[in-house]
Amino acid sequence: MQALRLARPRLPLRPASRAFAAAASSSQPAASASADPVVPLSNVEAMWERLSADEQAVIHQQLEEVQKRDWKTLSVDEKKAAYYVAFGPHGPRAPVDKPGATPKIVLGVLGLMVSAGVAFYSIRAAAPAPPRTITKEWEEAENERARELKLNPISGIASEGYSGPGFVTHK
Asked: Which of 73, 62, 67, 64 is closest to 36 using CA atoms?
């Protein structure tokens, strides 16, 4: 019940919609005016998108009146209409992507990934060679020099029985 109150527009009805609502209710006796909807509640899902904003507001009001009654006495169509108006795929809950847009999105993402890969490898191909200090031989020479200079003699490369890689990071 509260969901429809929260989902309905907060603006008052325009004069045209008041006339529409008055015409709809004046053609019926006063007792059954709120019970008989302008649009059959069994068909709200099919007609909701084609209804004008004024007609949608009238249906909101009718469903609010219907929901004030005991829920056990409501028909299945009235319950379905109330649920659709409150939580249906329209307004802010409308799908973002149209049906059939998934292949376009997938192809667009793949195209961007391919272009990023091409840019990466073209920049990498144009880059200068890596410096000579990043070779395995250079790192092994750094290990020998560290042993000569006795770097970290307690627990490091110059300690007795050291078996770690030292400065070598290449395999």
From this structure: 62
